[in-house]
UniProtKB/TrEMBL annotation:
Domain EAL: 23-272
Coiled coil feature spans: none
Signal peptide: none
Name this polypeptide is given: PAS/PAC and GAF sensor-containing diguanylate cyclase/phosphodiesterase
Length: 274
């Protein structure tokens, strides 16, 4: 006990042991969650900053656990990644998302998160095209969101993204600016859209320092001919500043929280109101 330094403390940290036990329990429950219909998909509109109209929506998964209540994807997606069940969950979310888009019957797109593990599956391109075929939705209506680290870590991932893009599916880099890929590397990545992480949007306050990173990302996108999406917009001031900086698309609580698809029917089907 005398030399019970950092190492012993870590091993006996009760919160860490609880966490591991809970991870294991959640991992077991997750295997059955899909079959039991406990997973559902919410949708958050993405808005054209110039016209103010919705042009698409991001699909975000939720888990209604029978005893724990709603479990956040921040908690269970990493667990699903480790167990591999993310592959099944990901295809479920994709299908639900495309069916919702079909129900809206509008020229909108749907954005679906793709985890690193999914991207490294040898059958990923085939699986995604199969879901598009089954739902009867065109590849042009789909955007896949991947993180920088997912692309950089997985060499196979780049080949898969290239193939998906050749079929007309668009690729967005999620949480852009929080990863570590070099700017030079970015010019060679198969992407169409950069999503500015909400931590940068939260810093916008009308000062040059507050907008430095957001502005740099928008300029970079313009040079590379990419579309920019700002996430986590909570105030009208942030939206106005993003518009001034030349950002194309916005997403955040200012417009709508993630909601069940039918709750967005009025908003999403007013697209052609012109
Ligand atoms: P993300 O892809 O970066 O999704 C954006 C997150 O920001 C969502 O959290 C959304 O609800 C939240 N958000 C949107 N607008 C605002 C805002 O104005 N303010 C604030 N504070 N937050 C906002 P959510 O739904 O809890 O999802 C968290 C993360 O879980 C996602 O981050 C994504 O990484 C992951 N995730 C969610 N659904 C899926 C999925 O179907 N597949 C995979 N692989 N990951 C998913
Ligand atoms: Ca995302
Ligand atoms: Ca994001
Ligand atoms: Ca994020």
């Amino acid at each position: 006990a005398k030399r019970a330094g950092t190492h012993a403390w870590v091993l006996h940290d009760p919160s860490m042991i609880d966490r591991r036990a809970e991870d294991a329990a959640l991992s077991d429950d997750l295997a059955a969650a899909l079959d039991r219909g406990e997973l559902n998909v919410l949708f958050q509109p993405m808005v054209d900053l110039v016209s103010g109209r919705p042009i698409g929506a991001e699909a975000l998964v939720r888990w209604q656990h029978p005893t724990r209540g709603v479990v956040s994807p921040v908690r269970f997606i990493p667990i699903a990644e480790r167990s591999g069940i993310i592959t099944e969950i990901g295809l479920f979310v994709l299908e639900q998302a495309l069916l919702q888009l079909k129900a809206w019957r509008q020229p909108l797109y749907i954005s679906v998160n793709l985890s690193p593990r999914q991207l490294s599956e040898p059958t990923i391109v085939h699986d995604i095209l199969a879901v598009l075929g089954r739902t009867g939705m065109p590849p042009e209506s789909l955007v896949l969101e991947v993180t920088e680290s997912a692309i950089v870590d997985e060499n196979t991932g780049i080949a898969a993204l290239r193939a998906l893009r050749e079929h007309g599916i668009r690729v967005a880099i999620d949480d852009f600016g929080t990863g570590y890929s070099s700017l030079q590397y970015l010019t060679r990545l198969p992407v169409d859209i950069l999503k500015i992480d909400r931590s940068f949007v939260g810093e916008l306050n009308g000062t040059p320092a507050g907008s430095a990173i957001t502005e740099a990302v928008i300029r970079l996108s313009q040079v590379l001919n990419l579309t920019t999406v700002a996430e986590g917009i909570e105030t009208a001031e942030q939206a106005a500043e993003l518009l001034t900086l030349g950002c194309d698309t916005g997403q955040g609580y200012l417009y709508a929280r993630p909601l069940p698809g039918p709750d967005l029917d009025d908003l999403m089907t007013a697209v052609r109101a012109d």
